[in-house]
Amino acid sequence: xxxxxxxxxxxxxxxxxxxGTFLSILGPYNSHxxxxxxxxxxxxxxxxxxxxSGSLFTWLFDRYLPDWPRAATGxxxxxxxxLPVFLAVAGIQAMIGAPFELAVAPIVFFFVWVISxxxxxxxxxxxxNRPASESPGPPVASRALTDKLPHRLRRASLIAxxxxxxxxxxxxxxxxxxxxxxxxxxITAADALDGARTHRSWWVAREAVERxxxxxxxxxLILNGNIEAPVSRTYAPKLxxxxxx
Length: 245
Description:
Blueprint: H1 3-26, H2 38-64, H3 70-95, H4 105-129, H5 143-146, E1 158-164, E2 167-172, E3 175-179, H6 183-189, E4 195-199, E5 202-205, E6 209-213, E7 220-223, E8 227-230, H7 236-241
Antiparallel strand pairs: 1-2, 1-5, 2-3, 4-5, 6-7, 7-8
Helix pairs in contact: 1-2, 2-3, 3-4
């Protein structure tokens, strides 16, 4: 694992340790009764469990519900993350001989949810304020476009964008996604990239072009992933002048 890939993991570990330490100092919900270092292991362990659960549920949402609004996703994540953490809290209480009464369980779950909601909110705000690129690198599309993509595609290289009625199909080197966005707005968001409109319904990244096919009298661009992009008579002169083919 390279240092670049290891850095996000180290940041998350540091955040878990920091939050665990902070909560162990505060000792909310009478957790100071665990003593030292018990209270630290208690909160740090719960933070680690919450982080692992959050990562899993975030991946599931990005894969199967990528178009959910950010606020709805955050609320759902806070509830889902609270479930395993609540079970862990209940299990620990049972092991030390002080299990919760059934009537108290909803209150305990609410207290767990409050902390989970706070952590999820901080994560969302941190992600929103994070620069698109932390170090100099190749140009990227603006977040007006990338925020609409599933998480797994947000750092992928664009290949092409195709208008489909009111939707936009975005082809990347890591897969494709159908999002609600106008092609004109997406092209504006991709202005920093080296690409061009080849058809009224198509935008193509120049580096994705593998070859040009002129078989039927009209040029077609063969892109990475064996994607065929049409070239209309309207845009053909500009593309030839720019040296695309």
